[in-house]
């Protein structure tokens, strides 16, 4: 019974392998006004795009160097703004189909924030810290 469940999870309910479907989701992610028959696929794209964006912003904020509350607020605004514009202007999805603007805005936000913080702290400390570790 456990083997059947694992096979269904791996290949989907109809027995088709999910590999090409995942690839087509990423291809559709870069094409404007793509069709998203599976809402979870689009939310997965939003989630992973937000993770990459969080790390990229962390590197940028560390290089600039931004610090303090201003950097945190700017991260939230830039991260939420870019993904919102991507969803509504580039993909032209109806945000109400996904639970409204707030649901799209918060999809993966906290994990993106964590990735941003780690990246930002490492880059900022490595480049702009006056104290060096004496090992």
UniProtKB/TrEMBL annotation:
One of its GO terms (biological process) is mitochondrial respirasome assembly. It is found in: Endoplasmic reticulum membrane. It comes from the Eukaryota. The keyword Protein transport does not apply. The chain crosses the membrane at residues 45-63, 69-87, 108-127. It is a multi-pass membrane protein. InterPro entries: EMC6-like (IPR029008), RCAF1 (IPR010742). The keyword Lipid metabolism does not apply. One of its GO terms (cellular component) is mitochondrion. Pfam families: EMC6. Keywords: Endoplasmic reticulum, Membrane, Transmembrane, Transmembrane helix. Belongs to the EMC6 family. This is Respirasome Complex Assembly Factor 1. It comes from Thrips palmi. The gene is LOC117651322.
């Amino acid at each position: 019974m456990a083997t059947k469940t694992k096979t269904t999870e791996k290949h989907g309910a109809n027995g088709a392998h999910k590999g090409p479907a995942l690839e087509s989701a990423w291809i559709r992610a870069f094409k404007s006004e793509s069709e998203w028959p599976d809402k979870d696929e689009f939310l997965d794209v939003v989630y992973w795009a937000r993770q990459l964006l969080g790390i990229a912003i962390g590197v940028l904020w560390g290089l600039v160097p931004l610090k303090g509350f201003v950097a945190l607020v700017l991260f939230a605004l830039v991260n939420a703004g870019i993904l919102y514009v991507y969803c509504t202007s580039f993909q032209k999805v109806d945000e109400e189909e996904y639970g409204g603007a707030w649901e799209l805005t918060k999809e993966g936000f906290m994990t993106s924030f964590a990735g941003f913080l780690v990246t930002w702290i490492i880059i900022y400390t490595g480049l702009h810290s006056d104290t060096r570790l004496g090992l």
